[in-house]
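Thread amino acids onto this structure.
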């Protein structure tokens, strides 16, 4: 089994390849931003979340997590609770993202790009048929748009209690000079544990339970992490601002 340093090095190389292979990208001087570099200080509110340097499945309950080594490197919700959705202080448009997570048996979380477009985090291990609500799925919208969810092309989930990783290239919606949307948001590429699961998937509007879901879309928004649907841990949340044509 590869160690974490090797795992992240390979993932970082992979996401760089993704970005340059799908479209024209301008990086400028932008560097990777580590949202867990100093615990939870980059988030607007963190009620219900804990931090640690090591997290494991709770020895007495396979649906929960517990901190096994104190520290700040990992953000964790140990059990299903009223933990807040983490909301970044930083805003983003087009980005690359590298997000590493762990969920125990039966758990559920999600990552909302720009606070509006959800990539699902879910215990889908061993499922032969997957839907938009499974891990790596792009969640559906409300009402008449409920058929617009996008399941992952492949179920790449590993077992509960193992670390998994998303590598994402996300393109923000586009607007004209009058603020009218001219192009939808798009998940240009999503790779789950080294397997591509989405390519050039448009999101016609905010997915269910998004921020400001009944308000007009915007060119930038915060990263938002679901915390109240079950135990979950994140030990890598990194983004890099890019410009996609």
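Threaded sequence (245 positions):
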């Amino acid at each position: 089994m590869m160690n974490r340093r090797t795992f992240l090095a390979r993932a970082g190389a992979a996401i760089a390849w993704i970005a340059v292979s799908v479209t024209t990208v301008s990086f400028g001087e932008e560097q990777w931003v580590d949202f867990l570099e100093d615990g939870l200080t980059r988030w607007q509110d963190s009620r219900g979340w804990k931090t640690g340097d090591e997290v494991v499945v709770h020895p007495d309950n396979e649906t929960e997590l517990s901190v096994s080594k104190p520290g700040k490197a990992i953000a964790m919700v140990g059990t299903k609770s009223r933990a807040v959705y983490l909301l970044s202080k930083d805003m983003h448009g087009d980005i690359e993202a590298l997000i590493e997570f762990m969920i125990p048996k039966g758990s559920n979380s999600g990552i909302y790009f720009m606070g509006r477009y959800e990539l699902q985090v879910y215990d889908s291990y061993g499922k032969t048929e997957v839907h938009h609500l499974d891990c790596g799925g792009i969640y559906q919208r409300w009402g008449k748009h409920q058929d617009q969810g996008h399941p992952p092309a492949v179920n790449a989930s590993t077992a509960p209690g193992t670390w998994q990783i998303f590598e994402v290239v996300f393109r923000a919606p586009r607007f004209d000079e009058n603020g009218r949307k001219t192009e939808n948001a798009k998940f240009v590429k999503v790779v789950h544990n080294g397997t591509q699961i989405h390519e050039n998937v448009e999101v016609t509007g905010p997915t269910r339970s998004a921020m400001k879901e009944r308000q007009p879309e915007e060119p930038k928004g915060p990263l938002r992490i679901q915390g109240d649907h079950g135990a979950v841990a994140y030990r890598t949340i990194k983004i890099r601002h890019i410009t996609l044509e």
